[in-house]
Design goal:
The structure holds two protein chains of two kinds.
Chain A: E1 8-13, H1 17-26, E2 35-40, H2 48-56, E3 61-66, H3 77-94, E4 102-106, H4 112-129, H5 136-141
Parallel strand pairs in A: 1-2, 1-3, 3-4
Helix pairs in contact in A: 1-4
Chain B: E1 3-8, H1 14-27, E2 33-39, E3 45-50, H2 71-78, E4 86-90, H3 92-103, E5 112-117, H4 125-133, H5 138-146, H6 159-162, E6 174-177, E7 185-190, H7 193-201, H8 213-238, H9 242-248, H10 257-261, H11 281-291, H12 300-311, H13 320-324, H14 332-345
Parallel strand pairs in B: 2-4, 4-5, 5-6
Antiparallel strand pairs in B: 1-7, 2-3, 6-7
Helix pairs in contact in B: 2-3, 8-14
The chains are: A alpha/beta, B alpha/beta.
Chain lengths: 142, 376
């Protein structure tokens, strides 16, 4: 049986984390293909519905990448994102999706290396945890 | 600063005395209108708006029924202010929901005189009609409730009421106190200056309050909190994953009654009835393909989970969601258990204060550091 490859739906802010992913690419820092990137204009526009929908459709993890506090292009979208993630964590934990599966990380445009590290770390963590209970396809394979 | 006055009533006189009180308020210009539960001509008791003292005779605020959470009615009455001062008789959960609507700028307390009645619970609407048919009265209900018995034959107060830890309404100007008052006695409590002024205008003289009230309220609240914890614990144990949640919601037909009934579901237009959720036929087929089976209507858990993200900080536990469900799904614990977690996380309590900012309306750069675990 092939090793379980977690699917990580990743919402990256255009101004920082998405640029960092680009930088990682051009610097030939390879990060795992488990990270499926959706470019958003700001981490503050990640509606909790996007996160819920990703999990309900079987994502093993959700990673939101935003600018460091103080650096958000829209001043405080990232701080709103942080409150929403705290709320979602309280909600999802009850139903078996713990904080290990929903990550928010600050990754600046110049931090290509950190992008790679976070991607590696989250992929490894989810491999260890196994598929999300809502991941029907992984369950079928296993 | 609370001041009290005692109203002793003989059998059958509670509502007459209350009508008199509000009539005195209108007559002496303490308020311009009254919103209070009143008996309807044939059956049922509904919130009723009255502007002249002649029309107060059918007042029955202690009737054990709450057809809607009145916070929504107060929103309609005040979001575009009428300039009229309105006395409003509300239960604890109605006041607490109203506090949240005020902060959401969907209601306005400027011209209101809030009168909170001690709450011993309410029957479900259809049970209340049975109660009325069997000649049940508010006085009879109160007498039983003060002795710890709210049951009538075959039904009891709503599940939400049994686990409501706020029998006394917070943030009001006046309270109608029955807890710790003794049989045949009601105390009026002027809680704020506004309340005191209104009662004084209506001719009230203040005296001593009911001796054992504070303790009696505490005791009742503690018993209900204990019952609440037991309900939450069993919900959490039974519903620990998404399959269990789906099972719980398996009869849900996406009618959205629960959100219509919820006083704090604040969106003007629910996204679940917009084009975003009007999927193409092909989309359904694709889902059925990838998931194996597709229960229809779709997006049921998605709807309930999204609703939680909207209302978890504001849920006051009124149980109107459960009462509204045509399929007898007890949804209240779904919302209340998440609400408990979310409100604790943000050190917030729905309905506690009009001045406390709502959790998702403020944010700080040096908070919730544990979410990312990163330090620069
Ligand atoms: S979710 Fe249910 S219990 Fe909570 S405020 Fe809304 S209707 Fe009341
Ligand atoms: S009221 Fe009941 S059936 Fe209707 S949407 Fe809510 S839970 Fe579903
Ligand atoms: S612009 Fe990057 S998080 Fe707001």
């Amino acid at each position: 049986m092939s090793e379980f490859e977690p699917k990580i739906v990743s919402f990256f802010c255009n101004w920082c984390t998405f640029t960092a992913a680009d930088l990682a690419g051009t610097s030939r820092l390879s990060y795992p293909p488990n990270i499926k990137i959706i470019r958003v204009m700001c981490s503050g526009m990640v509606d909790p519905k996007y996160v819920l929908k990703a999990f309900l459709n079987g994502a093993d993890g959700v990673l939101i990448g935003g600018c460091w506090p103080g650096d958000c292009h829209y001043i405080n979208g990232n701080l709103k994102a942080r409150r929403r993630v705290a709320l979602l964590t309280e909600l999802l934990s009850q139903y078996g999706i713990g904080p290990d599966r929903l990550w928010l990380r600050w990754i600046a445009a110049s931090e290509g290396t950190m992008l790679k590290e976070v991607a590696d770390e989250m992929t490894a963590k989810l491999k260890e945890l196994g598929p999300s209970p809502l991941n029907k396809t992984a369950a079928k394979v296993a | 600063m609370s001041k009290f006055t005692k109203i002793a009533f003989n059998k059958g006189e509670l509502n007459t005395q209350l009508s008199q009180l509000f009539s005195d308020m209108l007559e002496n210009n303490a308020v311009d209108a009254v919103l209070a539960p009143m008996a309807q001509p044939k059956k049922g008791v509904m919130q009723t708006l009255v502007t002249s003292k002649e029309n107060l005779a059918s007042m029955d605020p202690f009737a054990p029924v709450m057809p809607v959470n009145s916070a929504k009615l107060v929103s309609s009455l005040t979001s575009t202010p009428s300039g009229k001062r309105i006395a409003m008789v509300l239960r604890s959960c109605e006041v607490r929901a109203l506090v949240e609507l005020v902060k959401l700028k969907q209601a306005n307390l400027e011209d209101t005189l809030l009168i909170g009645m001690d709450c011993h619970g309410r029957y479900e609407n259809t049970d209340f009609l049975k109660f009325q048919t069997k000649e049940g009265t508010s006085e009879g209900f109160l007498e039983g409730a003060l002795n710890g018995k709210t049951e009538s034959d075959g039904f009891d107060v709503a599940g939400a009421c049994k686990i409501c830890e706020y029998p006394e309404a917070p943030n009001v100007d006046i309270r109608l106190c029955t807890i710790g008052s003794g049989n045949g006695t009601l105390y009026l409590e002027a809680v704020t200056e506004k309340g005191e002024e209104a009662l004084t205008k209506a001719g009230t003289k203040f005296a001593d309050g009911p001796g054992g009230r504070a303790d009696a309220v505490k005791k009742l609240a503690a018993a209900r909190a204990e019952a609440r914890d037991a309900v939450f614990a069993s919900y959490r144990e039974e519903t620990g994953d998404f399959n269990a949640l789906d099972d719980k919601l398996s009869a849900c037909i996406n009618c959205y009654n629960c959100r219509v009934a919820c006083p704090v579901c604040y969106c003007k237009e629910c996204v679940f009835v917009t084009d975003t959720f009007r999927h193409k036929g092909e989309q359904f087929i694709n889902w059925a393909n990838s998931k194996g089976t597709l229960k229809m209507p779709t997006d049921t858990s998605f709807y309930h989970l999204t609703r939680i993200t909207h209302i978890a900080a504001f849920c006051v536990g009124c149980g109107q969601c459960t009462s509204a469900c045509p399929n007898d799904i007890d949804v209240m614990p779904i919302f209340r258990t998440s609400a408990e977690k979310v409100q604790a996380r943000f050190e917030y309590l729905a309905g506690r204060s009009v001045d406390e900012p709502q959790p998702l309306s403020v944010f700080d750069s040096d908070e919730l550091m544990e979410v990312t675990g990163q330090v620069k």
